[in-house]
Design goal:
The chain is mainly beta and 784 residues long. It has two domains: 98 residues, Phage tail protein beta-alpha-beta fold, CATH 3.55.50.30; 544 residues, Maltoporin, Chain A, CATH 2.40.170.20. The protein is built from seven helices and 47 strands. The strands form ten sheets. It has a 22-stranded antiparallel barrel. Strands 6-7-8-15-16-11-12 form a seven-stranded mixed β-sheet, with no helix packed on it. A hairpin with a 4-residue loop joins strand 22 and strand 23. The longest helix has 26 residues. The relative contact order is 0.10. The N terminus is likely disordered.
Length: 784
């Protein structure tokens, strides 16, 4: 053996010994309490229940291997100043060491099946749902902040074909089939910058529950998914605040104790795009405004766009008041706003004229929640809220001397009563009632020729629901059975929606899961014309009208919009041991009542109105391995077939869905060491379906003759992302984090949409919409 090889082996052994000694030294130091609790759960086959705030920042010395469970709990009690109550041979409740004046409301939380589903802060529960906690969020490729709606796109079966948070496809569904709840209030706007940024501030969001199937009976709507965002709801008399900025916006938040019984939570965020022109803003603008009236005006040879101004902001407020130890009142307020203004100027006959076009989008909500703990087992929650969405556009066409005003407005008011009864640690009962009134209006006003149309619909819904959850004494079996009954008096219709969630653990490390649900919804989004609302946010909300034929009201066609109904079932098998997770879930979903206008066709069906359905079958696979406390990675793969069926189209034969992405693959790796976090990932999926002009197209007519619908596909999509953060302390109470990310590191040119138009000579033009190019971003945050 050569001297070079001997020296190499020597240095390798020396490095391994040093690393081992260092690891042994670290083991003697205090560890986060959550790490020790997880080890105890695995060792003694128990489950801890606790409020996150009670164990936050708690550390303890690692336990000796010869400790019994009772000795371990007593040791942790001395180290952490917490109470550990052994309820039975399976459950341990953790509480703050303080008196509760006679009212002990010990609640066993849902059992966590996987604690780091992709990264820290993302967990999978035994009811099939996923939970995201931004406060403990690790890192994902391309993200330096825990953007809620960007984060869920990392989950298997969830993606956005156009890279926006306003068009998230969950198992082949459209974005309007996702129910977004903010502290129990339904939201109709999900994004800033017209979809590139989540409209929900992650730094004031405590927890996000995501359901793809097996939804709780208390949730209506959302036939594809539920995204339930919850703010902190406990008063801990601790002041917290933070400030931060990146190359798109700046934000701040504060949690302010007002007294022992009251607290105020505030947050605000505003773009800096109208103040500073950054490279990130330029890339975002290029992506979102391409192929819009705003961009076309800038590129027109006869008119120019100038004085453009774009900005957005959001404000959230939550007031918490504990009237008594049993009575709690919460007041919620939310407002999000986007605004685009630009002047279109033209010179004709030596006369210069400039007119202002604009687009505004807002969602405002206010709600009041009252919670009453009648006993340690029985509690009720009552909530009333009003939410309002408004999309307003004024578009001037100087060359044609035309002004077009468009408005889409949603008013949603609801009252809910939710009852929870815990019979014991194994049996829980949930039920309640919900009343909802939704009114949606659409306005179009044109001055040349003179035309005005205003249509408003209102639908009221009454719903009652009930649900029973059973957990076996050894916590290996979890069964949740529920049903929801919806009544729509306007249509004299009833919908019974059963729900089921079943989970069975076997051979210690395996879990078998069955989920199923029936659901319906009365709201959906449609596209009348691709250039509506300046071509930037062209989807508008509409209500189901239960019509079967086209009607004419105020010289405008009223098309049938049915109630959308879905059926879904899935079966999953999960293996989790030694920081290795292997998960596979097969599913089938059928959705009835969709319309062509809700699917965004840009082929021969663009101006056709038909009612149909889609059916998707697929499988989601995830492999996640944590190699150590600092290094981890995962790979996920989804395969699906998603087909439309419209009896009046394509001779009644099925054809691929516009969101039929057969193959999707994600690979990512993370590195976390002390205060440094790194993430690198790759996203690939097959191209979306496309309809090309037919080879037999007649160039002498005024129409495009297309081939079979969605018979071809665009090129495959490929994107590589990177992100890094570094945390450090400024003082004992102030902490800071700097971050940097690069979206699409390789600057891959991805075509996310293609359609065809005719020019003045009746020649077919191909129009490609591109994804984001290489997009850097940096951030800096300070928390107190």
């Amino acid at each position: 053996m050569s001297r070079k090889h001997v020296l190499s082996i020597f240095f390798l052994l020396f490095f391994l010994n040093v690393a081992t000694l260092k690891a042994q030294t670290v083991q003697k130091e205090k560890q986060p309490l959550i790490t020790i609790l997880k080890a105890l759960e695995d060792r003694f086959n128990i489950s801890f229940s606790y409020v996150d705030e009670s164990i936050k920042n708690k550390k303890a010395t690692p336990l000796r291997d010869d400790f019994t469970l009772e000795e371990a709990l007593e040791f942790l009690k001395l180290e952490t100043d917490l109470d550990f109550e052994l309820l039975d041979n399976r459950f341990v409740a953790i509480k703050k060491a303080q008196k509760n004046n006679g009212l002990v409301n010990t609640q066993r939380l849902e059992e966590v099946v996987v604690s780091n589903y992709l990264t820290s802060g993302i967990t999978k529960l035994n009811d099939g749902s996923l939970t995201i906690k931004p406060e403990t969020f690790g890192i994902l490729p391309g993200l330096i902040e825990p953007d809620v709606l960007q984060t869920i796109q990392a989950l298997p079966g969830v993606l956005s074909a156009d890279e926006t948070v306003s068009n998230i496809n969950v198992r082949g569904g459209t974005h309007d089939q996702n129910l977004l709840l903010w502290d129990g209030i339904k939201m109709y706007q999900s994004g800033h910058f017209f979809g590139l940024i989540s409209a929900f501030n992650p730094y004031t969001t405590k927890r996000v529950n995501v359901y793809k199937n097996g939804t709780r009976a208390k949730y209506g709507d959302g036939i594809s998914s539920i995204i339930d965002m919850q703010l902190p709801d406990d008063i801990d008399n601790e002041f917290k605040a933070g400030l931060g900025f990146n190359l798109i916006n700046a934000d701040g938040y504060a949690k302010i104790p007002l007294s022992d019984k009251s607290e105020l939570q505030l947050s605000t965020r505003r773009s800096i795009t109208d103040l500073i022109n950054t490279s990130t803003f330029e890339q975002y603008s290029k992506r979102i405004f391409q192929d819009s009236d705003f961009e076309n005006a800038k590129n027109s040879g006869t008119s120019i766009s100038q004085n453009e101004s774009f900005y957005f902001y959001d404000v959230t407020t939550k007031f918490l008041y504990d009237v008594t130890e049993k009575d709690k009142i919460r007041l919620h307020f939310y407002h999000v706003f986007n605004d685009l203004n630009y002047d279109e100027q033209s010179t004709s006959n030596d006369r210069s004229e400039a007119l202002n076009s604009k687009l505004t989008q807002r969602n405002s909500a206010i709600g009041l929640t009252y919670t009453r703990d009648w006993t340690s087992k029985l509690s009720t929650t009552t909530q009333v809220y009003v939410t309002n969405y408004d999309l307003d556009a004024t578009n001037f066409d100087i060359l044609n001397n035309q002004r077009l005003i468009q408005e889409n407005q949603v008013y949603d008011g609801a009252a809910k009563l939710d009852v929870n009864y815990t019979y014991n640690h194994q049996l829980k009962i949930n039920g309640g009632y919900q009343f909802t009134e939704v009114g949606i209006s659409n306005l179009e006003d044109v001055n040349n020729p003179n035309f005005r149309s205003f249509i408003r619909d209102v639908v009221r819904t009454h719903a009652i629901y009930g649900e029973t959850g059973f957990l076996s004494n050894n916590a290996k079996t979890k069964l949740v059975l529920g049903a929801r009954l919806n009544n729509l008096p306007k249509f004299n219709m009833f919908f019974l929606e059963p729900r089921i969630s079943f989970s069975q653990r076997f051979l210690n490390d395996f879990r078998f899961e069955v989920l199923g649900e029936f659901k319906s919804q009365t709201t959906s989004q449609i596209i009348d014309l691709q250039n509506d609302f300046l071509g930037i946010e062209n989807r508008r909300w509409v209500l189901a009208n239960n019509k079967t034929e086209v009607e004419v009201v105020n010289n405008k066609n009223i098309y049938p919009v049915p109630i959308v109904k879905s059926k879904q079932a899935s079966v999953g098998l999960h293996y989790n041991k030694n920081k290795l997770l292997i998960s596979a879930e097969g599913y089938i979903k059928k959705v009835d009542g969709i319309t062509t206008r809700s699917q965004g066709f840009q082929n021969q069906y663009q101006f056709v109105n038909a009612i149909g359905s889609y059916k998707i079958k697929g499988i989601d696979v995830l492999l996640n391995k944590q190699f150590s406390n600092i290094l981890g990675g995962w790979i996920s793969y989804s395969y699906s077939t998603n087909n439309y069926t419209f009896n009046d189209l394509n001779n009644g034969e099925s054809f691929p869905n516009n969101a039929d992405i057969k193959h999707a693959l994600t690979f990512a790796g993370t590195y976390t060491n002390n205060n440094i976090k790194l993430a690198l990932g790759l996203n690939w999926h097959s191209g979306i379906p496309n309809t090309e002009p037919s080879v037999n197209d007649n160039p002498d007519d005024d129409i495009i003759t297309y081939s079979s619908p969605n018979s071809t596909n665009l090129e495959d999509y490929l994107r590589t992302d990177f992100s890094a953060t570094y945390a450090f302390s400024i003082s004992e109470t102030a902490h800071a984090t700097v971050g940097a990310s690069i979206w699409n590191v390789l600057n891959k040119k991805n075509i996310i949409n293609t359609y065809y138009t005719l020019d003045d000579q009746n020649m077919v033009n191909k129009v490609d919409n591109e994804s984001l190019g290489i997009t850097p971003n940096v951030s800096f945050r300070v928390s107190f």
